Structures are given as structure tokens and as C-alpha cells.
């Protein structure tokens, strides 16, 4: 009941702020679930892949990557496929995969930041509108002006400011939290890429021996 009274007293700007809060909440929940699904134990994945690749099990390694969620697994799959095709530039294959994965991780985060920035401005707009209404009331009453006649306009000014701040503060906190999760995932991707490249560079002579033996025969 109090909520609907605040929305009514806050005027039309409060409904815009409420809509922004729903957008921010939807984005935060969506990104939280996405990051929760895609952040894996990269160290264990790379260890399992190297054990498989030491036996030249490329198909098994790619299958392991396909069955593992997350951008790090897709990056590793791209590097394994590039190596299997005989590509000399694994780093380029990883960079190409990065160009696909990073925008997917960053998608909609700018929307959450925008809501956090715009919400206080909407609250300020509501404050200005409330004060304008209050001064119009004062201007219209030349003889006697009661406090009750001004209370509605002043209430609108204060409620919208509070509403804008109540939306903006959680948005900033949620945005910084998601950015920290994003940085953690990208760091895992960099570690995985570095380890798989080092593995291929170190084991390249050993993996190429069977091929050269067949050619000699």
C-alpha cells in the first residue's frame, strides 16, 4: 500500500524510474546466471586436455571441450582445431575466438551501467518538476497559501530523488560485481590460451615424429 502511495505521489517520473529498475534487475540476473554457468575450473580442464593430447587424442580433446561450458573451453577447442589443421599461428586462432567470446560476455553490461547513470538524473528531473509545481502553486495563491497545498509538490520532489538513488546505488554495486566476474573469466581464458600454446610448442617435435616416420616409409 505504501509502495503505490509513493508511486502516486512521485508522479510520472517515478514510473520511469521503476521501469529502469526492472531492466537493471533483469540484466543483472541474466548476467549472473551466465557467468555462473561459464566460469569453470580451467586448470583441471587444461590438465585433462594435455593428458589426452599426449596420446594424440584430438577427437577426444575436442569432444571434451564441446561438453564443457564456458568461453575458455571454446577457446581451447579453437586452438586444438587450428593445430590439427596444421596452422602455424595458434595465437591468431585464439584471437579470432576471443573476438567472438568477449562481446558475448560483455553484452548488456553497458545497459546496467546506463541505468545506474540515468536513474539519479531522472530523480533530479522529478525534483525539478516538483519544485516547478510548488512555485506555480505559490504564484497562483496571492492571498493565503496552506502547507497542505505545497506538500504534494515537495513530496514529489523528494520521492523522485530518493527513488533515483535507490535504483542507482544497487546498479553501481551490481555492475562492479559483474565486471569483477568478467575480469576473472577473461583471466582464465588468457591462462588457458597460454598453457595450451606452451603445450603445443613443447610437444610439437614429439607429436610430429609418427608423421615423419610414415613419410620415410
Question: What are the SSEs and their pairings?
Answer:
Blueprint: H1 2-10, H2 12-38, H3 42-53, H4 58-66, H5 71-84, H6 90-106, H7 109-140, H8 147-216
Protein architecture, described:
This protein has one domain (2-208). By secondary structure, the chain is an all-alpha fold. The protein has helices spanning 2-10, 12-38, 42-53, 58-66, 71-84, 90-106, 109-140, 147-216. The chain starts with a helix and ends with a helix. Residues 205-217 have low confidence and may be disordered. 88% of the residues lie in helices and 0% in strands. Helix 1 crosses helix 8 and helix 6 packs antiparallel against helix 8 (147-216).
Radius of gyration: 29 Å
Along the chain, the helix and strand elements come as: HHHHHHHH
What is the number of independent domains? Answer: 1
**Proportion of residues in β-strands:** under 5%
Amino acid at each position: 500500500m505504501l509502495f503505490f502511495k509513493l508511486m502516486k505521489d512521485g508522479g510520472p517520473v517515478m514510473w520511469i524510474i521503476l521501469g529502469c529498475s526492472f531492466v537493471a534487475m533483469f540484466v543483472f540476473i541474466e548476467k549472473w546466471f551466465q557467468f555462473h554457468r561459464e566460469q569453470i575450473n580451467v586448470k583441471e580442464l587444461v590438465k585433462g586436455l594435455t593428458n589426452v593430447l599426449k596420446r594424440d587424442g584430438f577427437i577426444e580433446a575436442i569432444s571434451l571441450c564441446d561438453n564443457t561450458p564456458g568461453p575458455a573451453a571454446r577457446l581451447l577447442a579453437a586452438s586444438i582445431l587450428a593445430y590439427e589443421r596444421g596452422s602455424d599461428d595458434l595465437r591468431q586462432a585464439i584471437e579470432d575466438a576471443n573476438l567472438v567470446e568477449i562481446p558475448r560476455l560483455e553484452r548488456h553490461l553497458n545497459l546496467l551501467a546506463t541505468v545506474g547513470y540515468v536513474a539519479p538524473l531522472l530523480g533530479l528531473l522529478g525534483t525539478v518538476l516538483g519544485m516547478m509545481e510548488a512555485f506555480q502553486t505559490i504564484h497562483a495563491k496571492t492571498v493565503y497559501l496552506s502547507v497542505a497545498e505545497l506538500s504534494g509538490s515537495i513530496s514529489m520532489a523528494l520521492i523522485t530523488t530518493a527513488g533515483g538513488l535507490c535504483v542507482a546505488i544497487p546498479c553501481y554495486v551490481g555492475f562492479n560485481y559483474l565486471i569483477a566476474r568478467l575480469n576473472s573469466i577473461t583471466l582464465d581464458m588468457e591462462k588457458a590460451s597460454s598453457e595450451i600454446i606452451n603445450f603445443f610448442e613443447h610437444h610439437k617435435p614429439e607429436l610430429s615424429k609418427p608423421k615423419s616416420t610414415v613419410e620415410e616409409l
